[in-house]
Amino acid sequence: ILNVEQSPQSLHVQEGDSTNFTCSFPSSNFYALHWYRWETAKSPEALFVMTLNGDEKKKGRISATLNTKEGYSYLYIKGSQPEDSATYLCAFYNTDKLIFGTGTRLQVFP
Amino acid sequence: DAGITQSPRHKVTETGTPVTLRCHQTENHRYMYWYRQDPGHGLRLIHYSYGVKDTDKGEVSDGYSVSRSKTEDFLLTLESATSSQTSVYFCAIRTGDYGYTFGSGTRLTVV
After folding, report:
1. Are A104 and A88 in contact (CB under 8 A)?
2. d(C-alpha B89, C-alpha B35), whole Å
3. Which residues contact A18 (CB under 8 A, 6 or more apart)?
4. Residue B1 class from Cβ within 10 Å (0-12 exposed, 13-18 middle, 19+ buried)?
5. Is the pLDDT of residue B97 over 80?
C-alpha cells in the first residue's frame, strides 16, 4: 500500500503569519502530485497539479514546490488570512488513482 | 460543478439495510471514483471504474460494491449498512491527464 504522509496534522496561526506544510510520497514511479483545499461540507478544490521535479506553482498567496527525487512537496501560504482556514490535502497519482494524505488542518485566527 | 452530481446529499439509514449512492456525470469521462472521508484519514478510495462494466477495488472496499452500466452513472452500494460506514462519500471524475473534479458529497449516517 502506497503511503502519502502530511505534516503537521493541524496548525493554528495568527492572521498575517506565513506558514508551510509538507507532503511526503513514494519517490519511485512518480507521475503527478496534487494539492487540494477542502472545507467541511464542500467538495475538495484543486489548487495545483505538479508533474516535474523542481516544479514551483503559485496561485495568489499560495505556492507549492516539488522534489520528486526525495519524495516531498511543500505548500506555502504567505500572509495567512482567516479565509485560508481549511484542510489542505495532497494526493499522489498512481496507476489511474489518487492516493490522499490525511491532510493538514489550518486555522487562522484574526 | 463541472457536470458531476451526487445523490442523495444526505441519508440516514438503519444498520443492516441496503443503501445505494449515485454519482452522475454529464461529460462522458472514462474514469470515475468513490472515496470516503473520515476524520484523521483524509480521503480513502473505495472503488473506481475505468469504463462501462470495468471496475476495481480501492484500499477500503470491504462492505461495498459498485456498478457502472452506462458511462454517466457510477453506483456505490452498501449491501448491509453498518455504523462503521457512517461517513461522507465523495465521487470524483478524471477530467484530463491528471485533472480530477469532485462531487459535493453524500453524508451517510447509519444508526
Report:
1. yes
2. 6
3. A76, A77, A78, A79, A80
4. exposed
5. no
Residues facing A41 on adjacent strands: none
Residue A57 has pLDDT above 80, yes or no: yes
**Which secondary-structure segment (H or E) carries B54?**
strand B54-57
User: What are A84-105's pLDDT values in tens digits?
Assistant: 999 999 999 988 889 999 999 9
Say which amino acid occupies A66.
L
3-state secondary structure A66-93: EECCCCEEEEEECCCCHHHCEEEEEEEE
Q: Which residues of B touch A44 (CB under 8 A)?
A: 43, 90, 102
What pairing do the DSSP bridges indicate for beta strands B19-25 and B32-38? unpaired
The cell for A14 is 495568527
CA–CA gap between residue A87 and residue A23 (Å, rounded): 13
| Interface residues of chain A, partner chain B, Cβ below 8 Å | 1, 6, 9, 31-32, 34, 41-44, 46, 49, 51, 89, 91, 93, 96-103
Per CB-CB distance under 8 Å, the chain B contacts of A93 are 98
Cβ distance A89 to B105 less than 8 Å, yes or no, reads: no
Average pLDDT across chain A, whole number: 93
Q: Phi and psi for A82 in degrees, rounded to 5?
A: -55, -35
Helix (H) or strand (E) holding B98: none
Q: What percent of chain B has pLDDT over 90?
A: 86
